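Input record, target 12 of the design panel.
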């Protein structure tokens, strides 16, 4: 019977301005590299269902700075992609790299920055739906849509900001001035609160929004890296900003996009509105990792 990973052990790492919290599910008998599963600002707790399908690997998950257990000294400060890439570098050094890395959403943006800055940290990167409007053909209007999200949040608080976020990130196809100028939807349409509690330090809408979406990958460094980079997108996400980001990166790298089951959060478990297909997603991820390892 193959050895299985242990229950997660929680560890912390003090870095300037934040205490990073990460979990390690150790498989003592594996000879493979650790598999690091990340999002941003999605915390490590969301990756439990996906991790459970890799009992034969040592699995690392973490809470990005400002998310859940990774508490920042000043939550009002913005998070840059470069800072988050350095966070990943520190965690990988602590667990013993190099690693294989599955990165989704803002985590995929941070992972591309990590590989550009520390190419020996990652053997295989599977970058799933990085929201990179700054490299899309309709860059001007896509970035205006991001600014509209931030404006809605600053004017009316979390509910309004998240409603605008859902509307714009769910938009399919190029952004136009007409799309950007549409009134923000009513938060109640998405079951969000209409009342403004006055806070303006939300990790998604304040700390991460600009740093993630305005980042432009260093494609020369990515091409030169020894890392095998696989871009990925969800079968249900076609045409959305994050899916288009995966295709834009793949085009610049001269590679194809692997299609994964479900949507932007296809690895998420449960039966709520955001539930994906973690078993099918894990099967595809294992296939992609095995294929990429064979090509090295």
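The sequence produced for target 12 reads:
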């Amino acid at each position: 019977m193959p050895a299985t990973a242990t229950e997660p052990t929680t560890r912390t790492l003090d870095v300037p301005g934040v205490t990073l919290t990460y979990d390690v599910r150790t498989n003592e008998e594996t000879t493979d590299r650790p598999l690091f599963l990340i999002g941003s600002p999605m915390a490590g707790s969301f990756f439990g269902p996906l991790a459970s399908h890799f009992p034969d690997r040592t699995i690392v998950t973490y809470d990005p700075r400002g998310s859940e257990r990774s508490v920042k000294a000043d939550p009002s400060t913005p998070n840059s992609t470069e800072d988050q890439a350095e966070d990943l570098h520190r965690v990988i050094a602590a667990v013993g790299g190099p690693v294989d890395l599955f990165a989704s959403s803002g985590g995929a943006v941070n992972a591309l920055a990590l590989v550009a800055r520390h190419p020996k940290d990652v053997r295989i990167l599977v970058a799933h739906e990085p929201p990179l409007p700054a490299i899309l053909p309709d860059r001007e209007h896509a970035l205006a849509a991001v600014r509209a999200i931030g404006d809605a949040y600053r004017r009316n608080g979390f509910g309004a900001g998240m409603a605008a976020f859902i509307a714009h990130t769910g938009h399919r196809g190029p952004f136009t001035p007409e799309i950007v100028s549409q009134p923000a939807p009513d938060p109640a349409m998405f079951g969000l609160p209409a009342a403004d509690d006055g806070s303006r330090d939300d990790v998604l809408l304040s700390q991460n929004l600009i740093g993630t979406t305005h980042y432009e990958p260093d494609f020369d460094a990515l091409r030169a890296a020894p890392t095998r980079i696989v871009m990925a997108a969800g079968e249900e996400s076609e045409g959305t900003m994050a899916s288009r980001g995966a295709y834009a990166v793949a085009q610049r790298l001269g590679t194809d996009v692997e299609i994964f089951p479900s949507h932007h959060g296809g690895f998420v478990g449960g039966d709520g509105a955001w539930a994906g297909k973690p078993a099918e997603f894990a099967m595809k991820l294992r296939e992609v990792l095995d294929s990429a390892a064979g090509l090295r």
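The chain is about 40% helix and 15% strand.
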